[in-house]
Specification:
mainly alpha, Arc Repressor Mutant, subunit A, homodimer, DNA-binding, Tetracycline Repressor, domain 2, 2 domains, 10 helices
Chain lengths: 209, 209
DNA sequence: ACTCGATTTCAACGGCCGTTGAATATTAGT
DNA sequence: ACTAATATTCAACGGCCGTTGAAATCGAGT
């Protein structure tokens, strides 16, 4: 593995744990096992390093989410896919990635959760990295719910986004709350519940008219 | 207003914007218009100041949420309240507080959203400040959905928590995504959609059995 | 007027921060 | 073997960090 990648990995892990401001370049380079100044040879600045961390996996994630959506649509040449299928194409790739390279993606999802909920970064960064794909998904949902207004669609997606990012942040909150009955890391439980829960929400808003 | 309160207000605003690590005690005291060392006269440490910021409004919020739930239950002496009513008792107080003292609570909700999604703080802090009340609400939901397993109840609440905190974080994300069709700050739109969306999710999980 | 505690100011501590420039080592092409 | 680009090391810069102790000010009770 190249040094640049080791730096990105270390930065990803630490940023995910303590946030952008909570981590120093020195800590990152220490965990990467390289000299501090190498950070500024491979990246323009701390902020640039952070952006590259975000970008690296965002592209891959967008790719496989898009493919999952296209696969669902191919299975429905005539009619529209169900809301559950579309939401599944949005969430299942996360589960697949975790199953394949658990540690790597776990940190990334934690990072995205914090970004999404930060007023400083959330608005702009999520838009920059994920908006085209999200618009594509909302387009598919619009076809599945033809009576649903755009306003309802956007708000429904917003609720989905909050539930999704918190769930994949694996903060351990639900473990404490449920006294161990539920575990943050139990992806099977999430898989069988989240799409059902969210699809019902979408339908309930669409049905209000 | 006492100096201690001015420090808490400044800390709340800045922590909500840039997170715990992103703000220095000097910045806080500068915004509060007081000398740096006064922070350490009124509080034990930066971390203690942070805890007091969290605690101050958590108590008030828990109070009025509990009263809202009790009011709902009083309206149903024989049968159980509906899921919508219970969720409304959980979310409406946030809207009321924003309507009454907008700036003050806006910053606090932003802060809570970041805490909730942080692996470093989320698990423990949310548990410490909000768990007793949340357990009370889940108890009410259990009565409204007698066929719902505890596991489903906890996961449903978890999805609710993610949607709720992101929504009240007002990051501007939905403004960008919807190209202005929806606005983060549009509390009327949230009020007429969120309880419906979430209650449908609860019901969908309960109905799987 | 005087005291005594609560509050505020002032100056400073060691330490880590992001970043840089120059010197050195490594690698690939000729 | 020489060169030229790429990669890495070393030492340092000014600046801000959290925190502290001692001195000054203020305010209420006598």
């Amino acid at each position: 593995m190249t040094t640049r990648d080791r730096i990105l990995d270390a930065a990803e892990t630490l940023f995910a744990q303590d946030g952008y401001a909570g981590v120093s370049v020195r800590q990152i380079m220490s965990q990467a096992g390289a000299d501090v100044s190498l950070a500024y040879y491979h990246f323009k600045s701390k902020r640039d390093l952070f952006d590259q961390v975000m970008l690296r996996r965002a592209e891959h994630l967008n790719d496989i989410r898009l493919k999952a959506l296209e696969a669902v649509e191919k299975r429905h040449p005539d009619d529209a896919p169900t809301v559950e299928e579309i939401i599944g194409a949005f969430t299942n790739p996360l589960l697949d990635l975790l199953a394949a390279d658990h540690e790597e993606w776990k940190h990334y999802f934690r990072l995205v959760a914090q970004i999404n909920n930060s007023p400083e970064w959330g608005g702009e960064l999520m838009t920059r990295y994920f908006d085209p794909l999200v618009r594509r998904f909302i387009g598919a949902l619009r076809k599945a719910l033809p009576d649903c207004s755009d306003e309802d669609l956007y708000w429904s997606y917003h609720f989905l986004s909050g539930a999704l990012t918190l769930t994949f942040a694996e903060t351990g909150r639900i473990d404490n709350l449920s006294s161990g009955v539920c575990r943050s890391s139990d992806m099977a439980s999430i898989n069988e519940r989240m799409p059902t829960f969210l699809a019902a929400g979408f339908r309930a808003l669409a049905a209000r008219e």
